[in-house]
Amino acid sequence: MDTLHAVTAEIVACRACPRLVEWRELVARQRRASFRDEEYWGRPVPGFGDPAARLLLVGLAPAAHGGNRTGRVFTGDRSGDWVFRALWKQGFANQPTSAHAGDGLQLLDAYVAAAVRCAPPANKPTPEERDRCTPYLERELALLSGVTVVVALGQFAHDVVWRLIGAGAPGAGRRPRFGHLGEHPLAGGRTLLDSFHPSQQNTFTGKLTEPAFDAVFTRAAALVRPPRTTPPPANPT
Q1: What is the pLDDT of residue 39?
Q2: Which of these, 200, 217, 219, 235, could form a disulfide with 86 (CB 3.0-4.6 Å)?
Q3: Hey, how many other C-beta atoms are within 10 angstroms of the C-beta on 73?
Q4: What distances in angstroms separate CA 111 from CA 19, 159, 171, 197, one per listed residue?
């Protein structure tokens, strides 16, 4: 029987994409000056969160000096600052920040993953790398049977999620156009919500503001309410 623990173990051990393996390990050896005294993770980064989650958040890939350093997606980088603050505001996280994997962060009714699990050069995975990695997200989706809302951060995540569970949605035709706060039906009664990715390219230029980002999670919370009040099961990572 497949489990989230099994998926996590396979992700961490994966070496299927030579270019990504070379890059993630090079970054882990050379390190950024501000993190020169830290031991980098330097491996694929699994998803994490509440196994009974109704909200799934999908990003593009770990940041070279974020998840590739800390071993937890969106942890230790500026994009993650936006993500966990927004989740915390809606009660999906017990704290608004996440600096490292042992900092006490817990997600309630939410699970966070990436479309590609290794940090890619220039944040641009190839189509072949995307396709090798997609089965991991597919397995997580199958195991996260309570998920009713999927938030895709950026066009890349939007396309991957749609390919996995969009085509079977009632009345589904062509892949819907990505757009901030876009809302699309998915197979199994799930809903896809789109958001601009909280990368510095978007947040520093004003393309994505904090109120606009928060609006996505306000809508996500409304779709999964009433919220659960029981404590989350132990996070798999």
Answers
A1: 95
A2: 217
A3: 29
A4: 28, 19, 27, 17
Kindly report whether the global pTM for this prediction surpasses the value 0.90.
Answer: yes
Distance, in Å, from the CA atom of 44 to the CA atom of 14, rounded to the nearest integer, reads 7
What pLDDT, in 10s, does the model give residues 92-111?
999 999 999 999 999 999 99
Tokens of 9: 């173990």
Q: What pLDDT band is residue 234 in, cutting at 50, 70 and 90?
A: low
Q: Do residues 193 and 152 make contact, with C-beta atoms less than 8 angstroms apart?
A: yes
Architecture of the CATH domain 4-224: 3-Layer(aba) Sandwich (3.40)
Alpha-carbon distances, residue 210 vs 14, 73, 180, 197 (angstroms): 35, 20, 13, 12
Are 85 and 140 in contact, with CB atoms under 8 Å apart? no
Q: Tens of pLDDT along 12-24? A: 999 999 999 999 9
Please give the order of strands across the beta sheet that includes 149-153. Answer: 48-49, 110-114, 55-59, 149-153, 191-195, 183-185
CA distance 102 to 184: 35
Is-contact 112 57, C-beta < 8 A? yes
- Phi and psi at 191, nearest 5°, equal -125, 135
Token pair listed for 215: 């609006």
